[in-house]
Structure formats: structure tokens, C-alpha cells
């Protein structure tokens, strides 16, 4: 199959620096060059994430976690787009484009970036999500247009589902345990990750991931159809 002259999309989604790289590089490559994505169904993810985000609008950062400096959540659910990314000193065709969850403004003019997670697992940790958060930070600090901000803190605001709660009016709701996980800034690490990511996209189509459920499904289906 001939590689197109230009990719179908030239904006890198921050989440692809975590989930994309950790799953199948072939599926990731096809997504950017052909804009072809395996359909997925997550009916409650968006609803729960939106509820979590709404709950913390205009919240005090010290109410979220007492170790954070004084500040208030003033922005939420906004799209950010970065300037063109450089790799080895050369400007590429690629830019970051994504929608962050929460941004707080501190008293010294810097900002805090918060990514909201609703989960029933314990796999959420700062190291795994650091590239995704750094991508948002890069776009906020190197925007394609508008004011640049200094990102002082990053973190995950996690709700772990812990069962069903009954209210006084006999209605029911999900109970959660809340935790804030700080994510240390690692701009050098982000430079390595984004550079490798762009080199992957600019190369030829990689091999299918041996544990990729999408690729394995397609291969097994072709064998049945043959």
C-alpha cells in the first residue's frame, strides 16, 4: 500500500502519547495517515467525566489538595493548539491539539493543569499520564495564537468508583473515593517522547502489534474469510 503524500491529520492528540503509544503503533500510524480508527463504545465515560469537571469549576486548589498553592479553577474544557513542534532543531508539520479538563490560576500568574479521571482500576499514575499532560502544557506555553502561560503544576484528579450510595430520598448514586496525584514536570522527557512519536509517524507503516486486539481481530477474520 502506497503511503499518501500528506497525512490525513497533522494535529497530535495528547492522549495518543499515552494510550496510542502503549497499544499498537500500526493502528496509531493508520489513524494519522488515513484517519481510520476502530470504533469503540464507552457510553458512560463522557457523562461521568463531564460531571467530574463540572463539580470542580471555580474550585479552590487547596480544597482539591492542601499541598497546592492558593489558586482557583477558572478555565475548563477548552481546546488548545500549539505552535509547530521542532525535532532535532527542525520545524515539523506537526502540532498539538487537544481539550484540557481544568486549568487553575495561581496568585503569581502561573497556572495549574488538572486532568480528570473516573476509573474502577488502580492503574492511573503520574508516570503513565505525564506525556499527555506535558502535551497540554506545551500547547499552553507555546500556543499557535494568543497568550502563553507558565504551567507551574500538573496533576490527576481521580475518582475511583467504590459502589452504590443510597440517598435520603431513596434515589441512588455512585460513590467515589477522590485522590489528587501530582505529576512532576518533565520537559526533557516530553521532548524525547514527542520526537520519537513524530519519527514514527514520518516513517513507513510499522508492523502490527502482537498483542493488539484490533490487528489480531482483522488477521483472524481474514483467515476465516479466505
UniProtKB/TrEMBL annotation:
Pfam families: PDDEXK_1
Name of the protein described by the UniProt record: Unannotated protein
PD-(D/E)XK endonuclease-like domain: residues covered: 79-217
Organism: freshwater metagenome
Amino acid at each position: 500500500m502506497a503511503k499518501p503524500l500528506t497525512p490525513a491529520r497533522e494535529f497530535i492528540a495528547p492522549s495518543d502519547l499515552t494510550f496510542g503509544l502503549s497499544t499498537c503503533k500500526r493502528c496509531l500510524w493508520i489513524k494519522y495517515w488515513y484517519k481510520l480508527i476502530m470504533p469503540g463504545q464507552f457510553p458512560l465515560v463522557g457523562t461521568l467525566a463531564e460531571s467530574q469537571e463540572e463539580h470542580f469549576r471555580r474550585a479552590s486548589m487547596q480544597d482539591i489538595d492542601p499541598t497546592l498553592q492558593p489558586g482557583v479553577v477558572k478555565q475548563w474544557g477548552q481546546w488548545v493548539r500549539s505552535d509547530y513542534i521542532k525535532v532535532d532543531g527542525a520545524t515539523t508539520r506537526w502540532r498539538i491539539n487537544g481539550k484540557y479538563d481544568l486549568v487553575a490560576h495561581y496568585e503569581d500568574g502561573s497556572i495549574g493543569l488538572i486532568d480528570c479521571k473516573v476509573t474502577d482500576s488502580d492503574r492511573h499514575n503520574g508516570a503513565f499520564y505525564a506525556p499527555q499532560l506535558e502535551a497540554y502544557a506545551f500547547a499552553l506555553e507555546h500556543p499557535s495564537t494568543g497568550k502563553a502561560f507558565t504551567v507551574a503544576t500538573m496533576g490527576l484528579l481521580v475518582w475511583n468508583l467504590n459502589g452504590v450510595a443510597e440517598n435520603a430520598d431513596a434515589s441512588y448514586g455512585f460513590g467515589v473515593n477522590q485522590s489528587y496525584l501530582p505529576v512532576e514536570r518533565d520537559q526533557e522527557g516530553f521532548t524525547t517522547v514527542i520526537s520519537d512519536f513524530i519519527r514514527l509517524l514520518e516513517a513507513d507503516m510499522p508492523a502490527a502489534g502482537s498483542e493488539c486486539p484490533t490487528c489480531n481481530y482483522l488477521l483472524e477474520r481474514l483467515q476465516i474469510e479466505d
